[in-house]
Each structure stands twice: as C-alpha cells, then as structure tokens.
Amino acid sequence: MGFNTGEQSTLMADFLDQCGGHAVVDGGLATELERHGADLNDPLWSAKCLLSSPHLIRRVHLDYLEAGANIIISASYQATLQGFEAKGLSREEGESLLRRSVAIACEARDIYLDRAAKGSLDVAGNETILKKRLILVAASVGSYGAYLADGSEYSGVYGDAVTLETLKDFHRRRVQILAESGADLIAFETIPNKLEAKAYAELLEEEDIKIPAWFSFNSKDGINVVSGDSVSECASIADSCKQVVAVGINCTPPRYIHGLIQSIQKVTTKPVLVYPNSGETYDAYRKQWVPTNGVADEGFVSYVGKWREAGASLIGGCCRTTPNTIRAISKTLSCRAD
C-alpha cells in the first residue's frame, strides 16, 4: 500500500481502519543491531551498518515484522549526506546509501510477505504462523542534532548561528532523495524544537514532496519538547502542514506519554503516534544509555492500553525497545480490538 498526493490524510485513516483502528510501529534499531554484533561507536551510529553490514539491518526489520509491526522505519535516522562526506564518501555514494536504507526495508517487507503467503512459521522460535497484513515503510529523517552526534537532539539547543534557512538547506537534498526512494512516507523523528519542525513543514511544501510524512517530537518533562518549546505549538505546526498525516512523540520516557497525547489532541485531529524509549537516559558524553528509570517489557506494555484509550492510534517503541516489546504491544492491541 502506498500513499500519493491529494487525499493523504484519508489514506492514513483508511490504512488505520484496515489495521483494525490502530497500527504497530517497530522498535529500537541500534539496540538490536548491537545485539546482532554490530559496533555502532561511530558518528554515523546505526547508519554505519548501511556501509558495513546491511544484512543485519534487514534481519532486524524482519524481526520486527515477525513481531507484528505494521510500519518499519528505515536505517536513515543518522544517515546524512554531510555525515557520509565526513567519512570520505562522495555525494553520489551518500545519496546511494540513503536510497539503500529504504530498499533494505522494502526487501524485508517482501521477504516477510512471501513467507506469510506460504504460511511459514516465524524464525524466533515462537511457533507463530506469519500473517499477511498491510505493511508500510517509513523513511527516517533524524534531526540536525543527530548529525552533530553531540547529544543536541536531546536538548534542541543549536545556537543562534543555526537559522531556519540553515536547517532547510541541511535537510533539503536528503528529503528529496528519500521522497523518491520507494518509501510510503517520511518519518521526521525526535524533533527537538519548533524551529526544526517549521523547517520540515516548509521543505515539504517548497519541494512539493509527493509522499506524506509524520512529525514526531521528543520531550523530557511531559509538557514541552526538549528545547523548552511548547508541545502544543510544535504540534500546531504539524497540523497546519497538509503533507503531515500523523503527529506524535518518540524517544521519550513512557511515563510522560499519556499527558502528551492529550496536549497534542487539543491542537490537531490528525492521528497521534507514540513510540517511547524504555525510560532510560542517554548520556551524550559517554554516548550510552544509562539504566536509571527504564521499564521492563511488561511495564512498558502496561501503558499501551492507556495510550490507546487516550487517543493514540500508532504505537511502537524507540531506543532500547526490542522485538519482544513490539510483539507484546501487538498482542495487547489485538486483544483490545477483538
């Protein structure tokens, strides 16, 4: 199923309706790549695997599809043309890797659907027969702070030198490429401030991007995005952009999500998506997650029913969540739909 220009919001509503009123988004990518043996101690982070081990990315996408995900997100969050050039790659090589990130996700979808059509069992040892279902591929766009790899995606503080035009120029070519890559939509993730949301919205309109997008912000207090900008003001920017078909929150502790859903719903009628992290805290200096307030899969999933009742219709996980988390979310939502 793909989206085109025109009635994009209606198509998202149709997609959700065909999924039973809700859709399951996948979980953390980097965590799983490391579990499969990848070394991500690099400014490119998970995008490093586009160069070194694309087969691992495909494996993780498949793990999430087998766990019940309806939407898988490409490994392009930290994949920027500027970042690839800093590693010595040409502009053409960088653009090819961006396209490759989406192609890998599409390959995983094809493999899964082929196995499901044959009535295969999953490979995780759960003795579950794979089910054919609607699956979308979302092309991930990380923030300017993610490219800086200095933790500023978790503060939203870019400094006075970074203007609206700076951000638009930084993201423009990547957005153009991903929009033509075969993805069903673009996932603008972990947006840390209002300025970057405005840059994305203007880019989508200026470049006449033909596929829809979602805007997903991150918060550290349940009221504002990490920069201190109001969540409501940020969500209003997304609401006013015709290409945006869902608005939400990611990479935020689960305990804040319920209130954030309510804040978003006050300013938009677009579908709300939430894919929190495990509740742990990222230490930008040490470049690792600190297990302070993390919750086990059981605790994480205990929130899911409340998020659904509050109005979230796309639910998944972000950093430090796993296929087991997504499998539990899928089961929880399926039970509530029955």
Automatic annotation (TrEMBL):
This is Hcy-binding domain-containing protein. SUPFAM superfamilies: Homocysteine S-methyltransferase. One of its GO terms (molecular function) is S-adenosylmethionine-homocysteine S-methyltransferase activity. Residues 11-333 form the Hcy-binding domain. Keywords: Metal-binding, Methyltransferase, Transferase, Zinc. Transmembrane segments: none annotated. Its cofactor is Zn(2+). NCBIfam families: PRK09485.1. GO terms for biological process: methionine biosynthetic process; methylation; S-methylmethionine cycle. Zn(2+) binds at C251, C318, C319. InterPro entries: BHMT-like, HCY_dom, HCY_dom_sf, Hcy_S-methyltransferase.
